[in-house]
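**Backbone description:**
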Amino acid sequence: MSALNVLVLGAGGIGGYYAARLAEAGHQVVLTARGDHLAALQANGLTVDYEGQVFHHSLPACRHQDLVRDYQADDFDLIVIALKSTATSTVMTELSEWLRAGSVPVLSLQNGVDNEPLISEVVGEGRVLGGLAVRIGGHITEPGKVFVEGVAQIVMGAWPQQQPDDPRVALLKRLEAAFNKAGIPATVTEDIRYELWRKLLINNGVNPLSALTLLDTRSLTHHPEFGKMVYGMMAETVEASRADGVNLTQRDLDDMFELISSFNAIKTSMLVDQEKGRPLELDSIAGAVLRRCEKLGVEAPYTFTVNAILKVHRGLA
């Protein structure tokens, strides 16, 4: 199998980990980052601590302005977007001309269900691969260094759904094989929107509440009161999915609550952002649920309340 040329937009906890795994397996990887993290990547390379196993690679790393200057989009076999969902719109606008000049597929590994539509507006649906990073917790511990824990799976598929004779299937099979060989458990689904909503079940259940309470996933799900709130916010996400025609079920709700309850004590990405004073992915998680519930004319009191309190705490309301 020939090596892949992969661009990872956003070399944080998630992007940095998958980049290191791919580089370890002999693939060519270019990273984008900014600020002190970028300076450290350029000076000292990327160091990833994955549950005690350390990867270190000196990979090309640049700002988006330098990316546009030094590379063409079709220098890559795949572009992976591992940015916070709060940055998707801005980055797609920033790189729109550069992306449109090529034909390279774009894989989103981001939280929420609204990233792929933004990406498709720039590159067209035929180039978009939806994806999600499953059972992974990761963050930058200091510039150039990333800590990651969890199974760290990838689920991906043609967005918004796989069509008969879809030309993306061959690429997805190649990526699946390459990722698995690199130690990244990966599977391809024919219904990526369903999988994205299943992940939003967990994200809306624990992310906002963890940022509000400063508790990890296990503390939340095993707490007598907060556990009920997690389940309630997940139930509201099931309701919201109907607005997108995805129609999650009671079984999805119970399966995903059982899954998140069985996790180790993981700090959610929103909790880490709260602790570091960074912007929260509130609009793409709780906001996505609330907008769809409003459209359907159904109440979402748990999500509404936690979202409202967090916004006040962060000076957003």
